[in-house]
Amino acid sequence: MLAADRPIRVLVVQPPTTGGVRSLLPQIEEGSDGIGFKPPLGVLYVASMLRAHSVHQVRVIDAQAQRLTFAELRAAAQDFAPHLIGVSAWTDWWYPAWETGRQLKDALPAAHLCYGGPHVSIYPKETLATPFVDSVVVGDGEVPFLFLANMIANSSVDNRMPGLHLAQFGVTPAPDEIYIHGDLDSLPLPDRTLLPIASYGSVLSKGDFVTTMITSRGCPHRCTFCKLNFQKNIARSAESVVEEFKQIESLGIREVEIYDDTFTWNRGRLKAICTGLIEAGVKVEWAVRDRVSNSSTEHLNLMARAGCRRIHFGIESGVQDVLDRMQKRITLDQCRSAVAAAKAVGMSVLTYFMIGNIDESLEDMEQTIRFALELGADYAEFSITIPYAGTEMYETAIAKKLVTHDFWRDYAVAPVTDFMPQIIEQHADLGQLLKMRNSAIRRFYFRPRYLVREISNLASFGEFVRKVSMGLRLARSVYVK
């Protein structure tokens, strides 16, 4: 790794969400924090790498959780006067990320401005061609961004680092080259003290503070609606995961949401993590995302003993043909068994469903709602399907003329505030899909038996306030004329 001759100031930014892509989720409140903010792990990993392996002065700003306007973010950046600025970009929030970069470059023209994040991995050339952008990182950002910081410190930059592409050298080598860091244990654990711990929570949590964790990257599955950098799984060791839990506990945080796409993919690793947590006496509760095809009573029991209190299942549809077209590679019986098994060991269950998919009829959507009610999960999220760039679903929608053109690329090139993406209106228009989604939410969350059960399970006054407040906002959103 290239060493730095001198320290520089480096600012890493999670932009605001103001003006992002218009969400088709229920408008639970006017702001963006109705369900709670989560620590942005991407920027934390990048900043922690700099902290651990350089002499540079590093500052992280999460404009979302810190509720900063563009003007306030600009002022904070000017006060720090960084030599290098890294901005995280997600497609849903490309406009605010773009506006953040534009304003920071205007305020600090001598600073080097670099974009990274999922959006850049989909649209590297378009991002690099943006007039105020100096470089992009495509793929895992920790090593390339550290390399960039050291080059800037040495006043000599080049294009030799894989995944790092500088505008001054044009589009060669190909900016769609993705950098994948194969040894996750070699990365420092994210330093959560770089951000205000008390700013992060969740409407589903029992306590006040929540953090997030990633124990692996990538996913071996190929669902048509999902875009990942690579179709394989790279995992941290069980020892590394247990050590991070210990660090989290030492900060006074008692709840963790694990964002792995496939947390339980390796049973031996899963057993080692759970056993390590139990033997270490870690008193932190956690939640995971899992596939129904991975679930077994044995491993769910072990997870529950180790502190897992909630599990999220991406079920998506209650119609087998729709699931097959999505290439989910799960069955409805597996969904039933997984939810039942998780609840049997005392976990709460959250299920995800999508309506408005390719070749999905209104009756299919209705059957999905009935299936969601049948499963008896504790929570369900119903979303209107948006075909996203980089997915097989989006390419199919373009090929079948279910959308008019490559609208995501247009947005990547010329972002506008409050962009409305096209949806699949093959068998129902947007108005019908909104009514169907609102009906699903009403029928799931406002059943008298469900409300009584939720109230009886409340563990603290803070949880009561969060859930009642959320329920009132949700009711206002879906009980419309």
Biggest sheet descriptor: 6 strands, mixed
| CATH topology annotation of the largest domain | TIM Barrel
What is the mean predicted local confidence, pLDDT?
90
Total number of domains: 2
CATH first level of the largest domain: which class? Answer: Alpha Beta
Could you describe the 3D structure shown?
It is a single chain. By secondary structure, the chain is an alpha/beta fold. It has two domains: 161 residues, 3-Layer(aba) Sandwich (Rossmann fold); 241 residues, TIM Barrel (Alpha-Beta Barrel). Helix content is 39%, strand content 14%. The chain contains 17 helices and 14 strands. The longest helix has 18 residues. About 1% of the residues have low confidence.
Summarize the helices and strands and which ones pair or pack:
Elements: E1 9-14, H1 41-53, E2 57-62, H2 70-80, E3 84-88, H3 94-107, E4 112-116, H4 118-122, H5 124-128, E5 135-137, H6 142-153, E6 164-166, E7 211-213, E8 216-217, E9 234-235, H7 238-250, E10 255-258, H8 267-280, E11 285-290, H9 297-305, E12 308-316, H10 320-326, H11 332-344, E13 348-355, H12 362-375, E14 379-384, H13 392-399, H14 407-413, H15 430-445, H16 448-456, H17 461-478
Parallel strand pairs: 1-2, 1-3, 3-4, 4-5, 7-10, 10-11, 11-12, 12-13, 13-14
Antiparallel strand pairs: 5-6, 8-9
Helix pairs in contact: 1-6, 2-3, 7-8, 8-9, 12-15, 15-17
